Amino acid sequence: SADYIVRNKPGYYLNDIISNIKKDYPDSKLSGSVFLRSGTYLINGDLDLSSFDKVAFVGEEQNSTIIKLLDGAEKKNVVINNNDRALTFENICFEGISFDITGENNKVAIKQVIADDLICDSKGTDKQVLVNYSSFKSITLNNTDSEEVSNFTRSAFLLNNSNISSLLVQTKDSIFSSNTFINSLSYNVEKP
What we know:
By secondary structure, the protein is mainly beta.
């Protein structure tokens, strides 16, 4: 059962729904799931989810729960820009929208998601990004730590049963891939 159930309404943007959730659960008190009924949800700006922690955004069905830009809007992002957050996205199709994950030690699970881009530019030794049964046009994995990553880091990027057109790796963190189709792979890490 979901903690917050969302039904699409004409003329009502997903940004408004997120604002209402923040009002209903001040100080990031929501810990659970936000269930999006099938439908097309429009966004009119970046979807900033940085204040959420331990929340799963779950669509009813991957092909019928669609989050897309308002017609004519510039490309926008799902933004996760904070430290020590845990978020899950599942059964959602993002049209013309990218994921932008920054900050330290975030844990993000992306399951059965279709989206344009995933840009993960984060710091810390305990960040984890799982992409499972998903499809992206491009994924860029960066680690902006200036210091060496220790051998005991728990940071990892996990790609499982997914389809990725282009993968750019610019990190020394561990990357694990299983049953994942990658059309183009670029690896750019300076040697120590």
